Description:
alpha/beta, Stationary-phase Survival Protein Sure Homolog, Chain: A, 2 domains, two-stranded antiparallel ribbon, 8 helices, 31% helix
Amino acid sequence: MNILVTNDDGISSPGLMALAEAMSNIGEVCVLAPDKDWSGRGHVKTLNEPLRIYETKLESGFKAFASNGAPSDCVALGLLGYFSHDFGIVVSGINPAPNLGHDVTYSGTVTAAMEAAIWGVPGIAYSLDSSEKNYHVIDYQSAAIVAEIITNNVLTSGLPRGVLLNVNIPMGIIKGIQITHQGMRVYRDQLEERYDPRGNPYYWIGGDAPTGIPEEGTDIGALDMGFVSLTPLQLDLTSYEMINKLKNWQQDYNFPIHELETRTNGRS
């Protein structure tokens, strides 16, 4: 089994190395990750500039490849033929901070797994709930064991097309695994205005780290209680419940569908 390993913290991240070594217990590993930190930049597809790849080594001596592209670019490069073989699964991480609730739309870790799902390959994102700001001192051993167990299970059972897994792992003693849904993230961002040496303003989005509402059954709640949170996500973001409500708008609220048709046809 060929396994593609990537992340959003960059090729030198110890979390990437821990994940690659854990995956080597399962199958043949190829590491292709960004050459710099892409945290918080979401789902990216680089179309208007060249993507470059160079061979390197992780700190452990593990052979790896780095790219100037985003995490999702790295997955696309791997799945579209940079390597001479196909991949049975893509794993991303281990991120040194959790990706919970709406974080998944920002997270390069999660959107790398989304890119895998787009191409019909199972994708899993692994994140560690660490409060340590220096990710080089974080102990990833337990998280790597969890990643090995979950990845093995996915390889055995498979995932439906268009579905990926977002896994968040607590620090310290792990009580077990809970299957969860996305919780409510509370963001405390603040806009800071600053001035460069020439007196020109620039802006920085700062503020305190996000928190969350630890409701039972959610990813935030599971972590709060010391459990691994395993959340299945899907690429289809359609609100199916809202479709029927929108169809009723024309009748209930005089939604101007026919007016639009009349006006556009009149212009042709």
